[in-house]
Design a protein that fits this description.
Length: 175
């Protein structure tokens, strides 16, 4: 949890500084796209880190270790919670500043267009993934149906063979 927040803060800060330095020099948004991704990823890491206390033993050990190093050993203390919330607000503030810089440099609505396109592509990827899962499920269903048909055919042939075996055996023994 703390490690995710620290990584997110570092990522946000470095991405914000890089965007701020290069925004006036770049000719297109693509030149700062990687930094924008880093900023959004960093904010996401901070938000995920605020979800709660880690449940795994390794996560709890890291929480304890890093908490002692940065001075907040107790993740439930008011100071730790305040620090996390302030970091989250700072990341949101940096994201808002980048939005303003991009809109100022490339025209009103550019940032919103970027986010809309990102949402569209995420939705498209989800749809494609769902279609792929459906296709695989249909293939497994088809395989299962074929295997069940083979099973019933083999069982039927085996039943008929057993019936004829006993019937022929009764005829030969004269019963």
């Amino acid at each position: 949890m703390v490690a995710e927040i620290i990584a997110g803060i570092t990522l946000c800060n470095s991405a914000y500084k890089a965007i701020k330095e290069s925004i006036s020099n770049c000719k297109e948004v693509g030149q700062i796209a990687g930094h924008i991704d880093n900023l959004i990823d960093g904010k996401s890491q901070i938000d995920k880190g605020l979800d709660g206390v880690p449940t795994s033993a390794v996560g709890q050990k890291w929480q304890s270790f890093l908490g002692k190093k940065i001075g907040n050993a107790n993740p439930l203390s008011v100071g730790a919670i305040a620090q996390e919330k302030i970091n989250q607000k700072l990341a949101a503030e940096e994201l808002e500043q980048v939005r303003k810089m991009v809109n100022r440099r490339f025209g009103y609505g550019t940032w919103e267009e970027i986010l809309m396109e990102r949402d569209h592509r995420v939705e498209k990827a989800k749809t494609a993934a769902q279609k792929e899962r459906n296709r695989k499920q249909k293939a497994w269903d088809k395989t299962y149906n074929i295997m069940m048909q083979i099973f019933w055919v083999v069982l039927s042939i085996g039943g008929l063979a057993a019936f004829f075996w006993f019937w022929v055996g009764d005829k030969i023994s004269g019963r």
